[in-house]
Design the sequence.
């Protein structure tokens, strides 16, 4: 079913229109295994729509999405996740009423297809693995706390642990550093980077902060008005005059300084 | 833990001794409390744990009651055999109806879900009212009687407990199981839970069916005690009852709604015995509850415990 | 087989009779107009406040009872009748303002079950208040002489009051349309129905918007009750069936849509009127069946939009 030689993610001519707005105008994108791909672009470039369309939240008007060689266009989110595609959200999305440990347990139970068992007590199930994942993202000390009471940065870490519980081969992170202070952002993306390397997970992330992008991205895709404007290594993208023009006044991409 | 066991042991003793201390009338009320405790708890598995507010849960209580009544009255079985079949028939009928209603209702969320359950309940109410050949129409089904010694309230009381206690235990296991924790996650964040690989709709539907089945069992247990079933049990005003009980007891606890059921039933008996305007009094109590006691009775107790 | 055909042909014999068809159509349309007056308010309140006002039928009933009292105070004739309509509308507007500012306003941020219980409590309280104020017996209101006769049209004799109801309904529907499409307030109301987040960016005073919408809804219900007063028997149970029909209309038309309420109200009125001829005793089932079909094919209603 999954083809080891195929790119981990292959998107062809993906399009989506909202009323009069062409949010995606036929996007092509290929991500190789082991990549740490950044998708950048000014506000309204279509980054979030692109993510939501790949992950089954929005139906595309046209185009195909292949995940590890398998056509997953229009596949339901839960099936995508079980196939190995994990994601996080721009606006942090955890289970506020559950403890941090339970947050990860829910994901592990679903991954192991145990969420239908109605008799055994959930308390101890997968608790060790959940604790390991919390430790991996640096939340070992907060396992018993309600997720809703965690600091913003810690909720982001927790969301990463939840996504990792699904044993993804590809992780899609929508603005993983949104709402953080500049220093915290680099720490945060470095954590993601380190964990992804350790677990052999390919990553695609959207990001506004160019310092974050240039710190970790292996390749960069630039979206502009629903189309791919440029793609290449960080150095290539940085040198691209079109990209510089689009970003003029938005942020100073050439200097790699964050907005 | 030992304190919990002591409380549980005391509760068992009190429950066992109760019929000896009460008149037949109050034993009858105790049976009503037991049946409605299951009704309220099963409703709250849906609301408090699953985050689904059904405006039409009386439909399943009513379907269970009618199914039980029909088995006793019309199946043509020996009284003992028919009676043994009642719990099964009630749960199966309520579960079947809940599966159909749930299939259409869980496709929408929030208040729209509530409207759909409400609409289906009214459809079932109309059927109960109009299918006179089966349900007796407005007159309902009357003269239900458990066989032999079970017809005595003090004996039926123990039968009700042997039906309700295991049902509560099953629901208790359910809310603490992997399914239960998934349900709580679903309530907290339905969009996120899809992205851990949970099929939201089918988990909601399963919860709806289980909740409906136990509400049906509660309906049958109550019907055979009261001796009759009426279409009004499925009417829309009846659907306020489990909501009041759950909110009164506190929706964030497992047994809170059972406590709410006890308080509600006793209040109704006391108030309606003193004035014909009990809806007015009950309405005022509900208003006060909604405006002044957001966490219910268990919330009061907890607040006292922590401060 | 022969007898079945005979029964069926007898059952549908009215189809051959244009006079019967015209009369039923008129009755259906005029009842539909009354339904529209309740359902449009219910739908607006749901669209803007996101509250299901179960007490809306009780407000309609209060309008009818207000007409009972006011009719005794005004001189006979058309002017007096107009006074009754205005008085009932104004009275219900005041009651609506009191309910919104005194009670509803406190629970907009509370969970759905609290909002639901609050309007349920109002149903109980208002239902008993009617008994305390006007007693338990049924009342009737006579219509002004000029409207009480019959009118010849298309060779058929129609009751004049029914024609008046249809005219009044169309007049009010046009007025509502103008209010919603030609005024600033109407723009805010429609914006709130479509997307609440948009309200903030428009700089709308939501407190005032919520109050005015609820007052308008209550006033429409009051007017509907007063208009219905001469053609219904006015008793304490009046609100129970009315609210159900109004809900069916709102669900079919699309929650939050006034145009949907108008179309669905006429549709339900007609289905009821002809259902009585075709399937005596089962006409209520027909409206729920219609609702079920709409929910399955278009879960958000004829004129609603998917959330």
Sequence:
């Amino acid at each position: 079913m999954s083809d080891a030689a195929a790119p981990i993610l292959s998107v062809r001519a993906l399009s989506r229109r909202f009323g009069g707005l062409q949010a995606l105008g036929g996007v092509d994108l290929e991500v190789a295994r082991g990549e740490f791909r950044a998708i950048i672009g000014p506000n309204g470039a279509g980054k979030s729509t692109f993510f939501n369309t790949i992950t089954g939240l929005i139906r595309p008007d046209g185009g195909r999405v292949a995940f590890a060689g398998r056509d997953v266009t229009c596949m339901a989110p839960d099936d995508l996740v079980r196939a190995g595609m994990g994601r996080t959200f721009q606006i942090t999305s955890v289970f506020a009423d559950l403890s941090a440990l339970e947050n990860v347990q829910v994901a592990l139970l679903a991954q192991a297809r145990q969420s239908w068992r109605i008799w055994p007590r959930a308390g101890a199930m997968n608790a060790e693995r959940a604790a390991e994942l919390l430790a991996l993202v640096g939340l070992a000390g907060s396992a018993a706390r309600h997720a809703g009471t965690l600091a913003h940065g810690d909720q982001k870490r927790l969301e990463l642990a939840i996504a990792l519980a699904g044993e993804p081969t590809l992780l899609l992170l929508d603005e993983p550093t949104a709402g953080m202070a500049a220093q915290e952002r680099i720490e945060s993306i470095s954590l993601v980077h380190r964990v992804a390397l350790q677990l052999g997970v390919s990553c695609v992330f959207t990001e506004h902060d160019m310092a974050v992008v240039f710190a970790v991205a292996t390749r960069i895709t630039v979206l502009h008005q629903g189309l791919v404007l440029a793609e290449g290594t960080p150095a290539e993208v940085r040198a691209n005059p079109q990209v510089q023009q689009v970003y003029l006044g938005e942020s100073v991409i050439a200097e790699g300084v964050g907005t | 833990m030992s304190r919990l066991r002591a409380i549980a042991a005391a509760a068992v003793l009190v429950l066992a001794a109760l019929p000896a201390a009460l008149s037949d009338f109050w034993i009858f009320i105790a049976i009503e409390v037991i049946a409605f405790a299951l009704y309220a708890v099963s409703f709250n598995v849906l609301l408090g744990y699953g985050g689904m507010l059904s405006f039409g849960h009386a439909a399943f209580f009513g379907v269970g009651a009618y199914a039980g009544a029909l088995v006793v009255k019309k199946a043509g079985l020996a009284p003992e055999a028919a009676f043994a079949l009642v719990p099964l028939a009630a749960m199966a009928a309520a579960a079947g109806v809940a599966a159909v209603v749930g299939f259409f209702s869980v496709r929408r969320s929030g208040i729209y879900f509530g409207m759909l359950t409400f609409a289906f309940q009214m459809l079932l109410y109309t059927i109960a009212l109009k299918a006179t050949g089966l349900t007796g129409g407005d007159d309902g089904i009357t003269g239900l009687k458990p066989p032999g010694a079970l017809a005595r309230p003090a004996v039926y009381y123990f039968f009700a407990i042997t039906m309700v206690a295991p049902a509560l235990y099953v629901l208790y296991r359910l809310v603490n199981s992997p399914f239960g924790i998934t349900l709580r996650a679903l309530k907290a964040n339905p969009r996120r839970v899809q992205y851990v690989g949970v099929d939201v709709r089918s988990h909601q539907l399963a919860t709806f069916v289980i909740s409906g089945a136990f509400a049906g069992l509660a309906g049958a247990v109550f019907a055979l005690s009261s001796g009759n079933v009426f279409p009004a049990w499925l009417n829309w005003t009846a659907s306020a009852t489990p909501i009041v009980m759950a909110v009164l007891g506190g929706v964030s606890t497992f047994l809170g709604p059972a406590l709410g059921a006890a308080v509600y039933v006793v209040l109704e008996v006391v108030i309606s015995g003193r004035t014909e305007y009990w809806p007015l009094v009950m309405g005022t109590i509900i208003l006060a509850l909604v405006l002044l006691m957001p966490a219910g009775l268990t919330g009061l107790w907890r607040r006292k415990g922590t401060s | 087989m022969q007898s079945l055909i005979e029964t069926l042909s007898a059952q549908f014999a009215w189809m051959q009779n244009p006079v019967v068809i015209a009369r039923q159509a008129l009755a259906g349309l005029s009842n539909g107009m009354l339904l529209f007056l309740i359902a449009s308010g219910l739908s607006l309140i749901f669209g803007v406040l996101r509250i299901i006002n179960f007490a809306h039928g009780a407000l309609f009933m209060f309008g009818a009872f207000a007409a009972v009292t006011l009719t005794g105070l005004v001189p006979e004739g058309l002017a007096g009748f107009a006074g009754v309509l205005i008085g009932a509308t104004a009275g219900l507007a005041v009651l609506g303002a009191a309910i919104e500012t005194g009670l509803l306003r406190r629970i907009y941020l509370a969970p759905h079950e609290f909002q639901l219980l609050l309007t349920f409590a109002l149903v109980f309280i208002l239902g008993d208040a009617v008994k305390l104020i006007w007693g338990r017996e049924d009342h009737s209101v006579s219509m002004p002489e000029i409207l009480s006769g019959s009118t010849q049209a298309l060779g058929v004799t129609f009751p004049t009051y029914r024609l008046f109801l249809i005219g009044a309904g169309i007049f009010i529907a046009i007025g509502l349309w103008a209010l919603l499409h030609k005024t600033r307030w109407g723009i805010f109301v429609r914006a709130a129905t479509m997307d609440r987040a948009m309200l903030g960016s428009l700089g709308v005073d939501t407190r005032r918007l919520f109050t005015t919408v609820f007052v308008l809804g209550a006033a429409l219900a009051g007017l509907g009750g007063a208009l219905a007063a001469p053609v219904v028997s006015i008793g304490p149970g009046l609100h129970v069936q009315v609210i159900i029909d109004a809900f069916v209309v709102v669900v079919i038309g699309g929650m939050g849509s006034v145009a949907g309420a108008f179309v669905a109200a006429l549709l339900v009125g007609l289905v009821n009127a002809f259902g009585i001829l075709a399937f005596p005793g089962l006409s209520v089932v027909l409206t729920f069946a219609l609702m079920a079909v709409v929910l399955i094919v278009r879960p958000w209603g004829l004129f609603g939009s998917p959330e």
Q: What stands out?
A: Residues 24-235 of chain B form one domain. Chain B is about 75% helix and 0% strand. Residues 55 and 240 of chain B are 7 Å apart (CA to CA). The radius of gyration of chain B is 19 Å.
